[in-house]
Design goal:
Distance between the termini: 34 Å
Shape: globular
CATH class of the largest domain: Alpha Beta
Structural class: alpha/beta
CATH topology of the largest domain: Alpha-D-Glucose-1,6-Bisphosphate, Chain A, domain 3
Helix content: 25-40%
Largest sheet: 6 strands, mixed
Radius of gyration: 22 Å
Number of domains: 3
CATH architecture of the largest domain: 3-Layer(aba) Sandwich
Number of strands: 21
Length: 477
């Protein structure tokens, strides 16, 4: 039986040995090759890279073989490479696109297939649908050449993308002040592709840089998945105290996301990090330009937009929406609730390495630790509190949707409802400027309920009301 391959918010992911097989990776690559040919990129270079998961390098080689057989030339990375480095390589090599074999923050059982366009950003939703439609129903329809033959012919070339990326980063930020600052910095790459990058970039000076979880271990011990949120970061937060570190920098498995732990071993949630990074660009660097945010991230950005007179654009969830909007409006920064942030001057794609360096530069320029930076931000725009519940549900999805659409709540968590946005899910706006968002997963029977509010004691009540609105009862939880 032929398995359907569907692209989610950031490519295709599957369970290795079940739907994620060599045959299906080749089919998926053939669909991408056909799409690229339709776009007029025949004969152009494509960048192919991979992460540190099981057989990732072999899956990357399989994708390279299919692209080469379809008349493309391939730059195949010599080893595991962060997604932002692969994205930048598209620009540096003047390539037409990229394929990255990674499941990012998924559990160890999975792998994935990310695609990038000629800008190094996520392919837009229309393009993803076209790639899906071009995926052949049988591996017999896949073109393929042996990798050794392609290497000998020069249609596949092995290369190291690190030097060009590092040279590019040094045009965006002066690293020397961070090296000279005398900080104690703990890095948690979560067993992933970010390992070794921060010591290479900012080590060797007065600042001490330590790493944990830096080896290759596809089982991701001490965490349920390499996603930079609790509880996966708990070991790192504890190690921050043990190392007497000033900050914990966390990257997910492919290093396109950033997590932060403060000097007290407390997690700084993704919404606060996004607001801090935007504030750093606006206040410290004195940049001006549009901000792009998904509707599931913080209203602190809207407040900063008003204070600094810059426009703020809202999109659906996922960088397949953020990246095109950043290009359209020439954005200063773009980001999402999951901890992915992109910056002007770089590719329109999440970069957990650059985001981490910017955060460290913020600490150096302000001479403050993370908790103190947060106090400065809150003094400017007020404190904001966030949480999220992901829960499986039983029953018919359409029935749940109908229930939400007809709910018409007047208050949520004791706060008056002032509006409803349906751009991507159901976002109930609240009187304090906060919100409740209810979204359905596109790939599994899971409802995601998020909220942000200026009242710390109302977070749980808002989330519980959200579950009720969605018709989630004790049997679902």
């Amino acid at each position: 039986m032929v398995q359907d391959i569907k692209f989610g918010t950031d490519g295709w992911r599957g369970h290795v040995g079940e739907d994620y097989t060599f045959a299906n990776v080749r089919r998926c690559t053939q669909g991408f090759a056909t799409y690229l040919a339709e776009e007029g990129y025949q004969g152009r270079w494509i960048v192919v890279g991979h992460d540190r998961r099981y057989q990732a390098e072999q899956f990357a080689a399989a994708a390279a073989e299919v692209l080469a057989a379809n008349g493309f030339k391939v730059y195949l990375t010599e080893g595991p490479t962060p997604t932002p480095v692969i994205s930048y390589s598209v620009i540096e090599k003047k390539a037409a696109a990229a394929v990255n074999i990674t499941a990012s923050h998924n559990p160890y059982t999975d792998n994935g297939f990310k695609v990038r366009d000629e800008n190094g950003g996520a392919v837009d939703p229309e393009g993803l649908l076209r790639i899906e439609k071009n995926i052949p129903t049988s591996e017999d329809q896949v073109q393929r050449v042996a990798i050794n033959d392609a290497l000998e012919a020069g249609s596949i070339v092995l290369y190291d993308p690190a030097p060009a990326y590092i040279k590019h980063i040094q045009t965006l930020i002066d690293l020397q002040p961070i090296k000279d600052a005398g900080l104690r910095i703990l890095i948690d790459p979560m067993w992933g592709n970010g390992a070794g990058w921060f010591p290479r970039l900012i080590g060797g000076g007065e600042t001490d840089v330590f790493e944990i979880h830096q080896e290759r271990n596809p089982n991701f011990p001490e965490m349920t998945r390499p996603e930079p949120i609790p509880p996966n970061v708990d070991v790192g937060l504890q190690a921050t105290l043990g190392h007497h570190a000033d900050v914990l920098i966390i990257n997910d498995g492919d290093a396109d996301r950033l997590g932060i732990g403060d000097e007290k071993g407390q997690f700084v949630n993704q919404l606060r990090v996004y607001a801090l990074l935007a504030y750093y660009l606006l206040e410290v660097r004195e940049y001006r330009g549009p901000i792009v945010k998904t509707l599931s991230t913080t209203t602190m950005l809207d407040k900063l937009g008003k204070l600094y007179n810059v426009p703020v654009h809202h999109t659906g969830v996922g960088f397949k929406y953020v990246a095109p909007k950043m290009i359209e409006v020439d954005a200063m920064i773009g980001g999402e609730e999951s901890g992915g942030y992109a910056f002007k001057g770089n590719v329109p794609e999440r970069d957990g390495i650059l985001a981490g360096l910017y955060f460290l530069d913020f600490m150096v320029k302000m001479n403050k630790k993370p908790s103190e930076l947060l106090e400065v931000l809150f003094d400017k725009i007020g404190a904001h509190y966030y949480d999220r519940i992901d829960t499986p549900f039983k029953g018919d999805r359409a029935e749940k949707i109908k229930r939400i659409e007809t709910s018409d709540p007047k208050t949520i968590g004791g706060l008056k409802v002032t509006g409803l946005l349906t751009l991507d899910g159901y976002k109930f706006e609240l009187e304090d400027g906060g919100w409740l968002l209810i979204r359905f997963s596109g790939t599994e029977p899971i409802i995601r309920v998020y909220c942000e509010t200026t009242y710390p004691d109302r977070v749980n009540a808002i989330l519980q009301d959200g579950l009720k609105i969605a018709g989630i009862d004790d049997e679902d939880l």
